[in-house]
Structures are given as C-alpha cells and as structure tokens.
Design brief:
The complex is a heterotrimer of chains A (about 220), B (about 230) and C (about 425). By secondary structure, chain B is mainly β. Chain B is built from 4 helices and 15 strands. Chain B starts with a strand and ends in a 7-residue tail after the last helix. By secondary structure, chain C is α+β, with helices and mostly antiparallel strands. In chain C, about 30% of the residues are buried. Classes of the chains: A alpha+beta (about 220), B mainly beta (about 230), C alpha+beta (about 425).
C-alpha cells in the first residue's frame, strides 16, 4: 500500500494506492473518490458502546469504513475542513489526538479513548482524547497547517491549537500572562506542556474562524 | 492566449496574456486585475448580445453562476488579465475539444467560442448527487478554467470510478454516471457517512475536488451564532 | 539472591534516543542488578545504569516515570503502576530517596486524576438517569397543556392504520365494522352513560364494533373506541363488559397516547443532541431499541387505566370487583401482544392485586347491577345482516343477503369462544 498526502497544507488529502490484501481504515465520510475495484465495509468504531463514547466525547464518527480491494485501486481520503494532514508511523508507541483530528489508520493500530482530565476540558481541549497505539501508520488532520515540535521542559501553546501529543507530555492549563493580559490580550487560557516528547500544533483554529465570522455577522 | 496558474491549491489565480482581438468570457467578479488595453463587455449571453441571452442567463443563475457574463477583449497585444474565484480553492485549466459537463459554480472562465449552457441533470441525480441541480455544459474548442473548494485532481477514467457526492468538479460527456450506494448495503452506506455516491462508467476525463463545502459548513455552522 | 524475581519483571514502555529512527520507539523494559534494559521490537537494545539514572515523573497521565541519563540523550520511560516498586527492588537502595519522592507525587496526582474521572462518570450517570426521567417527566408535564383537539386529530390520523393493524391480526384483508344500530346503539349508550363519570366528561366517545372473534377493545386518542365482537361474546356479565370499556376510556381521558408520543420524541431529541446522527441509528433499527425502552411505560399506563376504570365504575355505582373477574377469566392462549387490553398478561396477578387494593380502599357504597341487555346485544349480533360480498353463494349461484347465523364458519368459532 502506498499513500501520499497531497496539496499540503491548505487542502491536504491522502491518495492511497491499494493492492490486493491491503486494508486501510478511515472515519466515516472521509472518502472523496475511489476506483470501482475498491470495496467498502462499514462497522462500529470499536464496538457499539465504544463508538458512542467516541462520538460524544472523542468527536469521532460512530462508524468507520474499511477499504480493501481484490486487485488494485486508488482511493482519495479527505477531511471536512481545509487544512493539513500529518502521517505518523507508530512503532509500538502511542499518540494522543484531539477530538476530531483522527482521519485514517492502518489495520495494526488500535483506537481507544483516554481521559483527558477536567483541566483539559476547561481549557477547551476536550474531556477525552483519542488514543492511538500499536504498529502502523496513522493520519490525522487539522484546520490550518500542522507543525511538530520536540519539547524539552516547559512550553506554552494557545488553547485550540494543540492537535496531538505523545503520552510523555504532561498538560496543564494556565493563564497566558496576568489576569489583565489574559482577558484583554486576547490570549486567555493557554496550555502549558511539559516534555520530553513531541507535540503537534495547528496554525489556525476553527473557533478562531467562528469568532471572526460571528463578529462579521453581528 | 497564454495562461499560468499560480498559488495552487488554496489561493489560486490565473494569469492570462491576451493578444490583440482575443476574448475571454468569465464569471462576474472573477477579474482581479488587468492592464489598460482590455475592454469589458457585460452581457447575458454571447459577446455582442447575439443569440438568446435571456433564457441562458436565467439557466445560468440556477446553476450557481451569475446571470451576466463578462467578456474581456484585448484591443492590442501584450495585455494581461488576472482572474480568481471568490473562495479559497483551486483553479485548473482544461483544453476543451468536445463537451465538458461542469458542476454548477465551478466554471470560472472560457475562451470565446466555447458554448456555455446550463442544463438540467435529471431528477434523481439533481436531488441526490450533492451537486447543484444544474450543470453547465461547455462545448467547443479552446481554453477552459474551472474552480473549486479544495484541491482539484484529475482522473482519467477507463472502466469505472466512484466519487463521493459533492466532490465532482467536471467530467467529459463521454462518461456516464449514476447515483448508487457506496458499499454493499444501503444501510452501511448511510452509516459509513458516504451515503450515496456517484459511479462513473465509460472513458474520459474527470475532475474531482478534495473537499466539499457542505462538510466544512456542517463543521463550522454550529459554532456560528444564529441571526 | 533475588535476581530471578526481578529479572522476570518486564514492563511495557518506551525509549527516547537520537539513535532511534524517529527519535522514539516502544520498548520492553527489564531490570538487572546493574541497570535498566530496554528492548525494541526490532532487536535494538538500550542500557541505562542505576548510577547515571535521574528520575522524573510526568507525562499526560501524570504518572509516567522517566529514567534519564545526565545529558538526556537517553530516556527510558514507563507508566506501569508496578514499575517504581520493581525499580526500588532492583536498584538495591541506590535510587531509594528519589523513588520515594516520585511515589509521593505519583500517588497525589493519581488520586486527583481518579477523583476527577470517577466524579465525571458519576455525574454522567446521574445526568443520564436524570435526563431519562427528565424527558419522561417533561413529556408528562407537557401533555395537560396540549388541547384535546390534538388527541382527536391524532385519532383521526391513526384510525385507518389502526384498522389495518386489526385486519392483520384477524388475518383478513380488511376489517369489517358492524354498522347495525341494534348492535351499535346499546353500546354507545353504555359508553355515554359511563362517560359522565370520567375525568373529562366533555369528551364524546364514539363506539365502533369490529366483526372479529378476538376478544378485545381498543381506544384511539380523541375518543374513538373499537369494541370487538369477540369481547361481547366472551364476557359473563354486562358489568364485566363495562369494566373493559371503563379501562379503555381511561386511556383516552388520561391521554396516554400523547404521553407515549411525547416520550418518544423526547428520547429522539436527546439522542440527536448527544449523538448527532440519529439517521444512522434509525437505519440500524434503533427504533426497536427505543420502542423496547419505552415499553415499560405501557405497563404503567395499563396500571393507571385499571385504577381509573375502577374509580369510574365506583362513581357510576357499579361494583368494580367485576374488573377483577374480567382479568382473571381472560384466555391465556396466544393472543397477539399488540392488543391493548391484553398487552402484558404475565402481569395479570399484579394488576389484579392492584385493583383489589384500590377496591378495598374505596369508601363503601351501594352498588347496583348494570341495567344492560347483554343477551339482547348478542342476539342482535347473531341476527345482523351480513354484507352481500361475504355471504356464501346459495344453490342458484346468486349471492343474497343472509343472516349472520347462517354463515357457517363464524358459528363454530363463536361457540368455541363461549365455551371457554
């Protein structure tokens, strides 16, 4: 199976060349186009109950699609928002994803739901996070461009801009500056991350776009 | 006429070099900039007002295009014109010889001489294809420019190909398409979020867009305040 | 010594190192008496001795332990709860002090995290339960504010469908109604006389008689009542017939249909808010789940209708104990579950007990027998005129109107019903 992420970072989409026996799993609605030789099977996203939890708290879809082919075919996967898609190879490692970030993965990857903590919820990062582990590639996307950073020590990320992070990263919510700059400086709450580990950030946030649009409407 | 498309796939614009007498027809609002030697004529049909403009104009409105068209003509050599669509997205050039069926609102500009006609795509397809009800049929020879939300990618279909509803930009009329379900079961199709898909058969060129506006709208919409 | 013990302990964790392609990898961690050994799935090994081991605690869970060398070029980490204990044993005191600090921090964080998590779960459960009852309560609370004309319109709307369902049960293509005044009017009078004592005396009940041997009666929202011929044949006394009618009328005056609908809508809306794509669920047959979830409501409705029926009988001066007799004499054969009156026959003992309890609590009053000619009604039914299409052909090949009594198959079935 060959997969290429094209048109990064604005309208990233994944072009997958599937061969006989290859399988790729993607969230519902991710398929943009595919060869006629590709078969789609739909199943619950990790068992019926798990799927519900993932939908309500993980921002994921209730169902996932598995794409296979008997011969060979081409498949294009995409995400609802314009933005970047990142591909990571998991080698027995784990990655935490923000709700809604997960796009697709290879069969050897497990999708689970992890508790993110009330602090994370207050900080707008969600109550739960998606935990991907195992062996294989996973693709996740975000609104805006995605860039990675190796963190050692403490680092500050604006809320709503953290897409994914390794489990070795600890997350705390805090204020950007003092109370004044927090409210009037437009930064408000921030996420303080402590390494060692890698974090992935997105260069734009949907909430930012919504806030701007709301300002135009009213 | 020479063309160059820059800043693909998100902020795409077309830079055109026009020679004396060359005309290009564009959708209203597409012009970003032009040199002084270009004349603009706005009609509801062909340049010069020939040939049944009113009906065509109305049909165009239904297809998501504007009632009016702008015709840009260079009155001397070496004129430049820069065109771009309204939304973030891609622009692609197609060398037309024959007929290309273009999804409503994806037509950006075409050389004079290419016939642009909005047509009805039939009930079932209209309702379920996720595209607009009308298509714009472009026939003739020359340069044609398409725009989209998302990146445009080209597929040379030979046999069959499946495209999710909302992702079709344009296709040659040698291709047929029908609405069908994505997977084997109808329920699976709906649960799997693919719902109904468009299955193309035949041989020809197909342009797809990587993203579709309704999905983005569905994500962003709930965050917006109701008026 | 204890070498064998902790050489057995293997922990799942990971390694950060520049020597690894990608900078990190999952690893299996062991400890010997010199240090930590991390084994990668591709066979690579990393070693960190206790003497150069610096310990930190952190990570997303707050409980991840990091073992790092001085220049931080190598980090071995693990989240396992037993890791620190094993490390303490294996390192033989070298890392004791640092480990104690770590353990304390870990326990504190763990406790806080656990509290948050379980608190959330409990909160969710309360919300779900509260939400569920809230929906049900909300539906019930809203119903009295809905005008009765809505019930009537609903009854109109489902009338045809109800008749179709009855036809399905009887196995016939279409339901036949007995239009004869001699049959309908006495029943209508019976109902009208009783309606005066109902909770909503202004409701006009309309009685229809259905020609089938199934012993049942059904009330549609708004006041239409369908009484089945089989019921008239089955009851032993006119008071028993009245008891059934009282029960059915109670469903209408207590507006149970509206309540059920309100609850269904409430559940669907709640699901929609939570899950966002009810369409898919419906396709899956979650309809069935919802119906099943709400079925317990129908038992409550039955119970309410039983009690209200008793109350109406008492007010009308009829002995409510007849309702008990009715229930107890019901045939327990295979009656379709969809039928209203018999919808939950396993609970008949419960229902009888509840009715008995209420009857005992009612203030004593003189009851009179019901002045109703049951035999006359039955005779009128037997002698009713059957529509020409259903009449058997006579010898001349002409179809004539005949008396119902002469229509053979019906006769036998009726006798069976009476004999039960």
């Amino acid at each position: 199976m060959e997969a290429e992420t094209r048109n990064r970072p604005s309208f990233a989409n994944i072009k997958v060349d599937l061969g006989a026996g290859d399988r790729i799993i993607a969230e519902a609605g991710a398929m943009a186009s595919m060869s006629s030789s590709i078969n789609v099977t739909t199943r619950w996203n990790g068992g019926c109950f798990g799927a519900f939890l993932r939908r309500i708290f993980g921002g994921e879809t209730l169902f996932v699609n598995e794409f296979t082919t008997a011969s060979q075919g081409e498949l294009v996967l995409t995400q609802p928002m314009p933005g970047d898609i990142e591909c990571i190879e998991l080698k027995g490692t784990t990655l935490f994803l923000q709700p809604g970030a997960f796009l697709a993965c290879e069969p050897g990857v497990n999708l689970g739901l992890g508790w993110a903590g009330i602090a994370s919820f207050v900080g707008g990062e969600g109550l739960f996070r998606l935990k991907v582990s195992g062996n294989g590639k996973i693709w996740f996307g975000a609104y805006g461009g995605i860039f990675a950073k190796e963190v050692e020590g403490e680092y500050v990320v604006d809320t709503g801009h953290l897409v994914a992070y390794e489990p070795s990263i600890s997350i705390r919510m805090g204020m950007a500056g003092g109370i004044f700059s927090s409210f009037f400086g437009g930064e408000g709450l921030v996420t303080r991350v402590t390494g060692p580990g890698r974090i992935y950030m997105q260069s734009r946030s949907l909430d930012g776009l919504a806030a701007w649009t709301n300002g135009q409407i009213w | 006429m020479q063309h160059e498309i820059v800043a693909r796939p998100a902020a795409s614009v077309v830079k055109l070099n026009l020679d004396a007498g060359e005309t290009i027809t564009c959708e209203v609002g597409a012009m970003l900039a032009m040199s002084t030697g270009i004349k603009v004529e706005t009609t509801s049909g062909k340049k010069g007002g020939k040939g049944g403009g009113l009906m065509k104009g109305l049909k165009r409105m239904f297809s998501g295009e504007n009632f009016f068209l702008n015709h840009f003509t260079a009155d001397r050599a070496g004129q430049t014109l820069i065109l771009g669509p309204q939304l973030m997205g891609d622009v692609v050039h197609h060398n037309l010889s024959g007929t290309l069926v273009v999804q409503g609102s994806s037509w950006l500009a075409s050389e004079e001489g290419i016939e642009i006609d909005a047509s009805w795509q039939g009930f079932g397809k209209a309702l379920f294809s996720g595209e607009s009800m009308f298509w714009v049929k472009c026939s003739g020879h020359g340069d044609l420019f398409l725009n989209s939300f998302g990146a445009i990618y080209e597929v040379n279909v030979d046999g069959g190909f499946t495209v999710d509803t909302g992702h079709i930009v344009a296709f040659e009329d040698t291709l047929q398409f029908k609405i069908g379900k994505a997977g084997a079961s109808l329920i699976g199709s709906f649960l799997g979020g693919e719902g109904l898909v468009c299955k193309f058969t035949g041989q020809g060129k197909l342009y797809c867009q990587s993203h579709n506006p309704p999905s983005f709208g569905a994500l962003l919409g709930p965050k917006l305040k109701a008026r | 010594m204890f070498d064998d013990d902790f050489l057995d302990g293997e922990f799942e964790g990971g390694v950060f190192s520049k020597d690894i392609d990608g900078g990190r990898a999952g690893a299996s961690i062991r400890m010997d008496d010199l240090g930590l050994i991390a084994l990668l799935s591709d066979g690579e090994q990393f070693f960190l001795s206790y003497s150069e081991c610096n310990l930190e605690i952190g990570g997303a869970s707050g409980r991840m332990v990091f073992c790092r060398n001085d220049d931080r070029s190598l980090t071995i980490f693990c989240e396992d709860k037993k890791f620190t204990a094993a490390l303490e044993r294996a390192s033989g005191g070298e890392l004791l002090e640092r480990l104690e600090e770590i353990n304390a921090t870990g326990r504190r964080r763990s406790l806080a995290g656990q509290f948050g998590f379980w608190g959330f779960l409990v909160g969710c459960a309360l919300l779900l339960v509260g939400g569920w009852y809230g929906i049900l309560w909300g539906a019930r609370a809203a119903v009295p504010h809905v005008p009765f004309t809505v019930d009537q319109q609903l009854g109109e709307a489902v009338y045809e469908q109800a008749l179709d369902e009855v036809a399905q049960m009887t196995g016939e293509e279409k339901v036949t109604l007995i239009e004869d005044d001699a049959v309908r009017l006495p029943l209508q009078k019976l109902v009208d006389d009783l309606a005066v004592h109902s909770r909503m005396p202004q409701v006009k009940f309309q009685v229809l008689v259905c020609d089938t041997e199934i012993p049942n009666a059904v009330a549609l929202p708004g006041g239409r009542m369908i009484v089945f011929r089989g019921l008239i044949d089955l009851v032993e006394t006119p008071e028993e017939l009245l008891a059934v009618l009282a029960h059915e009328m109670s469903h209408v005056t207590l507006r149970h249909h509206l309540q059920s609908i309100g609850e269904s809508i409430g559940v669907i809306v709640a699901l929609d808010i939570l899950v966002g794509d009810v369409g898919g669920l419906v396709a899956l047959g979650a309809e069935a789940l919802r119906a099943a979830a709400l079925m317990s409501k129908s038992r409550e409705h039955e119970h309410e209708a039983d009690l209200e029926g008793v109350r109406m009988l008492h007010k009308a001066g009829i002995d409510p104990a007849h309702a008990i007799g009715m229930l107890e004499s019901l045939p327990h054969g295979d009656i379709p579950d969809a039928l209203d009156w018999l919808s939950s026959h396993p609970d008949i003992e419960e229902r009888v007990a509840a009715i008995r309890k209420l009857v005992d609590e009612l203030p004593p009053r003189a009851y009179s027998p019901l002045d109703f000619d049951l035999e006359g009604l039955r005779a009128a039914m037997r002698n009713r005129v059957v529509p020409a299409e259903d009449a058997p052909e006579n010898k001349d090949g002409d179809r004539k109107k005949v008396n119902a009594a002469d229509a053979k198959p019906e006769n036998e079935k009726r006798e069976e019903a009476l004999a039960r």
